[in-house]
Amino acid sequence: MGSLSSSVANNSFQNVATSSKLTRPQTVWMWKSNVETEEWKRYSDVENRIIEQANQQNKNQVELDDLWIDLKHEIQINKQDSNKERPIKRVTNMSNEYVREERFTCEQPILNAKAFSNTSLFWFVSCKSFVYAAGLRNVKINDELVEKAACGIEEEGAKVNKKKEAEWIANELRKVKRRGEKEIGECCVKLYTMESFLYKLVNKVMREAQIKGNGRKPEFVSERDTNYGRTLGPYCWILQTYLRKSSHEKGTYVYRSANLTNEMIDDYKKHVGRSVSWNSFSSTTKNIAITLNFGGNTLFKIHIPRRTAESNVAISSLSEYPKEEEVLLAAAVEIVIKKVKYDKRINKHVIHLKLWGKD
């Protein structure tokens, strides 16, 4: 995995998140989901931005992917059935205590041959890397690459019926494409933290991508994955590069939740001492209480040693949800399975993991 260093490399970003052009919203838009009760649900973060921007521009209505928002009469209208209307409301000074369970629940609990590493050599991880298979090794981050990232997000968003969300995200990227690499990276992190289709699709694609080859020449197996490499690869590369160059957390623990079957838990037990490469970006939290409050039967306790080359960055200062205390692990980090035990005090299986490195 390369040499260990207790200091940040010379070409690294010395301080994370000195500023962010995407400021946290002061208002939240909600819609009444049940006619008979006072049950209100939040729009996604991107939808919220689209609605609020239209409101600030004194527009009477605005289009979302599945809905029309009538700001004048404060209702949402279903595009497929105009008779399906729901009241909406604008809430100011909304508390930012909200924490998303889905974000900190493991999406890749099953161990398989793709995940395992028999060695700590860098080439193993590089040959399994989505961004390397996409041909993005050492590609310079500039306005051309940012435009490719924006266009790719728009293309994939349209495929999953999120055209409006994708256009908004792409436009935010275009606003910073002539800025420095650090500010471009911060924008990508900010967009990643927002509740939208983007982070879910990116991680699903990276987890499921089939990659062949060895050494430093990985290739996608299918045409579908090759296309994903073209459309989503640029965004993933910018995000991965930012995480690699930013200051890393060291000498601490972070946590993730999961709901595993007995077979999955036994699989982890059988492979104690082995290394696993998590192929997508992984959201973890510094706050164990957050994951203990979730309903999963398993807790991942991940030790970040004092000396590690594995990219991990505390991104709460950039996040829409700072109370989540998120530490984002870069894609393809190498993690060692240390032990698996059941903790009666919390009624959960605890899987102890460690990022590659030394204390």
From TrEMBL:
Q: Which Pfam families match?
A: ADPrib_exo_Tox, WWE
- Superkingdom per UniProt: Eukaryota
Q: Domain WWE, which positions?
A: 15-90
One Gene Ontology molecular-function label = NAD+-protein-arginine ADP-ribosyltransferase activity
Q: What InterPro entries has UniProt attached to this entry?
A: ADP-ribosyltransferase, WWE_dom, WWE_dom_sf
> Could you tell me what this protein is called?
WWE domain-containing protein
Native source organism of the sequence: Didymodactylos carnosus
